[in-house]
């Protein structure tokens, strides 16, 4: 992540073991989606009830390029499911929901299942379209989507020499209007 993990406790005292468990959950989210840039977790005790136990609400806010995904969970019908609602149960349920939301976001964006980290190898694709008389084109990715690239993104070779169907390697980055291909390198032909 680009920014450090933020953990906050409200209406309750902090716990080193609970913080460690939250860090483990966030690490798991990072392995699922390598483009996670920040994460904030808030744990709040909603009610102080000494006989039936406290109810805890957990908020997980994940930042991905160009967007924030937020999850807010308290145990669903805690009195029916749990004899004594526990903060760890609420944390686990919130992170399960966060994982599902992150997977849905990744599937919606057409992200490949492989983890994309800061030092990951470039992705492979091919030139799908070159705009005649323009300074840009589009790359067909291995997931079937197209990514915009500018002539300045071509790091080796010349933009003018590119032809439709040429293999390329690129790094996907978040641009102003969505994902774009950066650091485009021309692959070996045929």
Structure description:
The chain is of the alpha+beta class. It has two domains: 6-109, Ribosome hibernation promotion factor-like (Double Stranded RNA Binding Domain, 2-Layer Sandwich); 123-186, Nucleic acid-binding proteins (OB fold (Dihydrolipoamide Acetyltransferase, E2P), Beta Barrel). It is 23% helix and 36% strand. It is built from three helices and nine strands. The strands form two sheets. The chain has a five-stranded antiparallel sheet, with no helix packed on it. A hairpin with a 7-residue loop joins strand 2 and strand 3. Helix 1 (16-32) runs parallel beside helix 3. The chain is elongated. Mean pLDDT is 79; it is low at 111-120.
Number of domains: 2
Mean pLDDT: 79
**What percentage of residues falls in helices of 4 or more residues?**
10-25%
Unreliably modeled segments: 111-120
Q: Strands of the largest sheet, in order across it? A: 7-6-5-8-9
Instruction: Give the terminus-to-terminus CA distance.
Output: 38 Å
Sheet/helix structural class: alpha+beta
CATH architecture classification of the largest domain: 2-Layer Sandwich
Shape descriptor: elongated
**In sequence order, what are the helices and strands, one letter per element?**
EHEEEHHEEEEE
Could you tell me the strand content as a percent range?
35-45%
The CATH topology of the largest domain is what? Double Stranded RNA Binding Domain
CATH class of the largest domain: Alpha Beta
> Helical segment tally?
3
The counted number of beta strands is 9
């Amino acid at each position: 992540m680009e920014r450090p993990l933020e953990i906050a406790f409200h209406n309750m005292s902090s716990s080193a073991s609970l913080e460690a468990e939250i860090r483990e959950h966030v690490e798991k989210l990072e392995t699922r989606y390598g483009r996670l840039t920040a994460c904030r977790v808030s744990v709040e005790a909603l009610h102080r009830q000494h006989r039936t136990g406290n109810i805890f609400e957990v908020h997980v806010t994940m930042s991905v390029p160009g967007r924030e995904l937020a999850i807010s969970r308290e145990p669903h019908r805690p009195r029916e499911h749990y004899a004594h609602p526990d903060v760890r149960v609420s944390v686990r349920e919130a992170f399960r929901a966060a994982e599902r939301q992150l997977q849905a976001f990744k599937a919606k964006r057409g992200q490949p299942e492989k983890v994309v980290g800061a030092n990951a190898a470039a992705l492979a694709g091919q030139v799908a379209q070159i705009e005649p008389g323009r300074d840009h084109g589009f790359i067909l990715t291995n997931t079937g989507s197209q990514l915009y690239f500018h002539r300045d993104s071509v790091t080796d070779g010349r933009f003018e020499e590119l032809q439709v169907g040429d293999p390329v390697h690129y790094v996907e980055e978040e641009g102003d209007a969505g994902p774009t291909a950066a650091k485009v390198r021309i692959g070996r032909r045929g």
